[in-house]
Design goal:
Largest sheet: 5 strands, mixed
Helix content: 40-55%
Number of helices: 13
Shape: globular
Order of helices and strands: HEEEHEHEHHHHHHHHHH
Strand order of the largest sheet: 3-2-1-4-5
Distance between the termini: 71 Å
Mean pLDDT: 83
Strand content: 5-15%
Number of domains: 2
Structural class: alpha/beta
Low-confidence stretches: 281-294
Length: 294
Amino acid sequence: MGQCVLSQSTVSELTETLQEEYEAWRVRDLSHEPVASLFIDTVYEPLRRWGQKTGVLWGGAIGEDGRKVFLSLSTTNSESYASCLEVVRGLAKRGMQVPVTITTDGATGLTKAIDAMWPQSVRMRWWFHKMRNLRQKVPAHLWPQVKALLVDLRAAPTPEKAEQRREAIVAQDQQELPEACRCLLDDAQASLNHLLVPQRHQIGGAHIVLVARAFVEERRRTKVIPHLWGEQSLVNLVFGVLIRVSDRWGKKCFRDLEQHQIRKLRAQLKLDEPEVRTPPISEHVSRRSAASAA
């Protein structure tokens, strides 16, 4: 309409308030959150000041009762072991209980940090990332057929059945699609670990994609300012969008039986025993890796 809706001073005041809310939110106590499944991922956004992209590493969780919660947000220049360990260590210092499952992509630094910090937890691989990577390695005319096999593999009734289906895919396509087969076998165990948890929790885990979808809303704002000027403005924008979305996540969607199943799995993994430790930055080999090597 050609009228000024908000003055420059009002925008500045709102920005300062948002930054104060973020600073209080990022150090809040997490001991009251009964975390069952933790999800960690990184998206990259451009910064005008340095002429390059910076990573926004976020953490979300699903509780034992099925409620989703937005836990952490920080920027990172790389998904190195040290930077990722700092993030997961921060969650532990704020009182978050050891998660039963942790879902990540295949970033080496992040997976090492997870294995070092929470070796008893079940680490799972984002199938969204896995499918995207596989699609880039399969010719377009073959993708519908390969995709159907991958969906069947992902939905296998047991880990043993899934391994059989994966072996069949590799045996069939090893000669024609060697790169795709190598990608399928990468981080193989974590790619099937979702079959270790109750089925309802497998379905519930897919709902954390709501966080990823929230980044679409954030990018609706950044695309009109293709390069954000500084890191703080990026954090304020992402936090403002995600915290608004997460305010609508209060619904409990797991029944008593499903909550009992996840508590039983927690007990089997011995997650509440006091030996869970905070590793030093220099520790690059987790106890799980050491046990596998032995």
